[in-house]
Amino acid sequence: MIPHLMVAATLLVGAIPLASAAPRRVVFEGAESEHKWALKDLNPSLPADWTGYDFLELELMASSPQRFFLTFYSSDRVQRRQMHPLANVWIRAAVPLQYYRQPNRAGFDLASVGKVPRNSFWISTGGVYGPLNTVEAIGVTMQAPLGKPALEIRAVRLSKVDPGSDILDRKPVVDEFGQWIPEDWPGKAKSLDQLNKEWAAEEAGLNAGEFGYCKYGGYLGTKAKATGFFRVERVDGRWWFVDPDGHLFFSTSSTGIGGGGGDARLKGREDYFTAMPPTEAAPAPGRRPQTGFYAWNLARRHGADSKSKWIDLAIRRMESWGLNTIGNWSDPRLWDAHQKAYVVNLRGWGMETGYLGMPDVFSDEFPKIADQAAAEQCAPRKDDPYLLGYFIANEPPWPGRESLVVDVILERPPSPIQRQAKAFLADGDTPERRRQFIYRAFDRYLEVINAAIRRHDPNHLNLGLRFGGSLPPAEMLRASKAFDVYSMNVYATSVNVKVLEEIYGVTGRPIIVGEFHFGVPGRGLAAGLVQVRDQAERGVAYRYYVEQAAAFQAFIGSSWFQWVDQPSTGRMDGENYNIGLVDVTDRPCRELVEAMKITHRRLHRVHAGKTAPYDVKPRAQ
């Protein structure tokens, strides 16, 4: 156990004094492990009424980056939030109490609404809300803990002002290759010479796989009508993409293929890093400069020709691994290589500056904004046969938050959408009426955006909204008939067949999953949204997820999230997930990649109903 450090005498104004007892240490074991303390056992000075305090300050150290729940137990409610701390170091975690008291009113998609980053951790914002005026205890809970992870808490207090969140010892924590210093693991890069040898060995072993693909990624030996562009068709009772040459096509992809991989947050945390990655000097037009460690390692690997060689390597990997589509959030330079099918995520509809993602769809400017966005993004690509289609947005947070969206609209300055809301609610302001108003706005949103896309590009597929979470409300499902393909992001061990059946029954549209992944806590990285036991189980999980989904008649594609592990200190929203196909040093995760190759060789027959899908479920512990 790390020796207790005496608390400094200087305290923030308006703060409860720090506890001075020895650190509380707990070990998580079993399927679900919970530990709970009465307030007096953590700090005798803590009151039950936290009214007037805005932060709970914890000094803690977690032996694993595995997520846990931080729970407040009151006399009339239990409120818990998911917490992801940086591991193997003492941190100060200033937990904003506002996210226990009321829903988050900021953000424009599920990720930005559902969690908030702090320097040394991130915390979720959803759950039971209410005043913190009768708090009796604080607890921590971990589900499916791996390797008996421990948590130590050495200080607890309340504060009226933000004391800041930070690493308190052992800086720097990230080495020159972007790896987490406080942890060691087999294969950790120790030198550039080691990396050069492993990079060379990988390239020597890359060969185009035997997946039966044509130049567009469709299956040779199949034939449907060729139109020169991707489309969808139901053949012998099963839906498929059809590629420009008329071959049946099942989309397999990864998101985020590029030279950045999700930049680390650097500014203000310079002492976290042994060395700072250089900023790209001359980014391509329309791209922000890359500043992350992955980009730096690509420059080390490819030298002066990095900007072209990483593209060549990415294409070779896709051909070797059986990926036939460049997934969402990928570098546009890959699109323009015209070697693989690709998707484009459109933006610019005003979601980022709207009301929890809902633009002011009733303003006179909205059709003009939509038309300009479509003209700039769609018109230049309308004749490109490699473009699979467009996603019009990502994970709208409106489902289940309709009343909150109306609150935000009514709280903001006067606007056309506010006037429409007040007029509609004049006949009754009820939760159901609020739902009706938001879906009136949603219908307008789709009508204007879909028309603008079709006006500037009549040739390519509308892949829909990339719904996140569970099954959306019936109003959204019915409106989704306007898309060519229904898309959703599903983080689970498998895609629920009953959900697929309901979506297909209402929309009649083929379905794709735009994001899923499986991760393992370790190497300073958290497991992501779905955890499995180890790297080998990531491969098992991939096979089970993709093949089980592919057996459904209307399922026509899946996209892994994401190409490269996230930064160990967190990207812009705090995520630091161990979910890449390659790590930060650009070395493939072998177990996962080999499993993918097996599944991709089987997918044609699985989706055609000629081969049973892989049926081994992954293990979480």
Structural class comes to alpha/beta
Shape: globular
Tally of DSSP helical segments: 15
Radius of gyration: 25 Å
Keywords:
621 residues; Jelly Rolls; TIM Barrel; 2 domains; six-stranded antiparallel β-sheet; 23 strands
Describe this protein's structure.
The structure is a single chain. The strands form four sheets. This protein has a nine-stranded parallel beta sheet. A six-stranded antiparallel beta sheet has the order 2-9-4-5-8-7. The chain is of the alpha/beta class. The chain has 15 helices and 23 strands. Helix 5 (293-302) crosses helix 6 (306-321). It has two domains: 24-167, Jelly Rolls (Sandwich), CATH 2.60.120; 294-607, Alpha-Beta Barrel (TIM Barrel), CATH 3.20.20.80.
Describe the secondary-structure layout.
Layout: E1 24-27, E2 32-38, H1 39-42, E3 55-62, E4 68-74, E5 78-85, E6 91-96, H2 98-101, H3 110-114, E7 115-118, E8 121-124, E9 135-143, E10 150-159, E11 166-167, H4 192-205, E12 231-235, E13 238-242, E14 248-249, E15 251-254, H5 293-302, H6 306-321, E16 325-326, H7 332-335, E17 341-345, H8 366-377, E18 387-391, H9 402-411, H10 416-425, H11 431-456, E19 461-462, E20 467-468, H12 474-479, E21 486-489, H13 497-507, E22 511-516, H14 535-550, E23 555-560, H15 590-607
Parallel strand pairs: 15-16, 15-23, 16-17, 17-18, 18-19, 20-21, 21-22, 22-23
Antiparallel strand pairs: 1-10, 2-9, 3-6, 3-10, 4-5, 4-9, 5-8, 6-11, 7-8, 12-13, 13-14
